[in-house]
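ok trying this again, last paste got cut off
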Amino acid sequence: MFALRAEMRRNCRRGQERRGWSSHKRGHQPQRHRTPAHSSRAQSLEQEEPQSPVNAGPSSNEDPSSSRSTQNSVAPELPGFYYDPEKNRYFRLLPGHNNHNPLTKDSIQHKAMECKRLRLLEEEEKQHQKTTRAGLNLSVLLQKRQLGSLSSTSYCRLLHELKVNCMQRRKIEIHSPDSSVAGTNNFKIIVADVACERIFTVNDVEHGGCKYGIINLSGLGKESLTVEMYDNLYFTNRKVNSVCWASLTHPDSHVLLCLMGIAETPGCASLLPASLFSSTNPDRPGMLCSFKISTAWSCAWCLNPQADNCFSTGLTRRVLVTNVVTGHRQTFGTSSDVLAQQFATQTPVLYNGCRSGEIFSIDVRQRNRKGHNWKAIRLFHGSAVTSIHLMEAEHYLMAADMAGKIKLWDLRTAKCVKQYKGHHNEYALLPLHVNEEEGLLIAVGQDCYTRIWSLQDTHLLRTIPSPHPSSKDAIPSVVFSSRLGGSRGVPGLLMAVKQDLYHFSYN
C-alpha cells in the first residue's frame, strides 16, 4: 500500500516538472493525492479532469503501436488501474460488466479495436491502389511477362493479387417482391451454390429465430448493383448450426440445414427445395423432408455416384450418414464432437474435423466397426477444428481451428506443408473459402476482419475491416468467386454484415 502511494506521488511530481503545471493552474490542492485512505485515492484517480498531474502520454496522431510503447516507458503500470494516453491519467478498473459507466478490460479493448477499424476504413477509402509485395505493380508485371521471366501460371497468380488489392467496396441494393423483407433482418450465414448464381441466406428475426431466403445474383452487373431476394414464410425458432447445398433431383436443387434442439424438441436435418424461394411459387416445389437427430454441428452432401442421395451430419461423438431416398443410416462412433465435414467427389470418402483437434476420413462404403479401424487418415491440430476444405485434386486438405491456425495438409504423407498466419479465432465456427483458380484463401476472423492470403506462398495479401463496428453478432459472412452471377458474372467478394450486403469488385 505504501509502495503504491509513493509511486503515485513520484509520478505526480514528475508530471508537474515536465509539463510545468502549478497547483493554482490545476485548480485543486495537490495534497488530495496524498490522502492516506485508499478509497479517497481511487476517487481522485477516477474524477473527470481535462488534464492530470500523472506522466503525459503520447500525442494522438502517433501510430497506436508506437503510442503503446511510449506509454509503457513513461507511465508505469499500477495494479488495478488503467492509464489512458488520451486523457493523460489513470483510471481504476472495475470488475464485471454491470456497473454504471464502467472501465473494464473489455470496454478498453473494444474502444481500441474500434479506433483501429475506423483508421483502416479511412485508409481503404484514400488508397485506391495497394501493393502487398515490394516492387510489384502492373507495369513491372507486364514487363516481366514480355521478357519471358514469368510463367503463365505465375503471371496470372500475381495479376489476381493486384486485382484483389484494388477491390473497392460498394453497397448492393436488395430488391424483393415483398418490400417488408429486404433490409429488415440481420444476415447470419450466406452460402453460394456451385455456379455462384444464387446465395442462400439465414437471417436472424426479432423474436429470436431464423428466417431463410435466396438471393439471385444475375442482376449483379458492372453498372447496376442490384439483386433480387426471395424469402419464404418458413422459419424456425431454433439455431442453425450448418448449411450446405444439396443436389437431390438436379444440381443444387435443395438446401440442407442442421438445426439445434431446444428443450424437449430434438434437433433435425431439413432438406428444403430451392424452388420454395422462387417468384413463381409453384404448387409442387419438390421434396421437402426432415430427419430427427440429436444436436448436429455440421453437415455435408455427397456428390459421388457410389453414395448417391446421401448426406452426413456431424453429431456429438458420432457421425451419421443418411440416404434420403431409402432412409438407411450408418453410424460411426467418435471420441469427440464433429464440427466440420466435407465429402470427396472422386471417391465416397468423408472428411471430419473434431472438437478434440483430430481430422479423420471415413469410407462410407464400409460397414461401421467398433474402434478406430475405419479411420483411413488421421491428422491432428492443437485446438478444435472449425472448418475443412478439400482441394480440387484431393491430395491436400485445408483446415482451420479455434487457435486461429490455418494449415494445409498433404493427405499422402499426413504432414502439414503450409501454414497461413494472421487468422483470429477463439471459439467460433468460422468457414474457410478457397479459390484455387485465382490462388486465394479467404477467411473471416472473430475480430470481424476479412483476410486474403496467397495459396502459393501463404503471403497475407489484404486485411479488410468490417463496415460495421465489431461485435459477436456482427461477424461478416462472405462469398468469393471469379463469376458472381453465373458464367458471365462479375468477379469479386460478397460480404453480408448486419442488414447490408456489399460487393468488393475488381477495379
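PB: full thing came through this time. The chain is about 15% helix and 35% strand.
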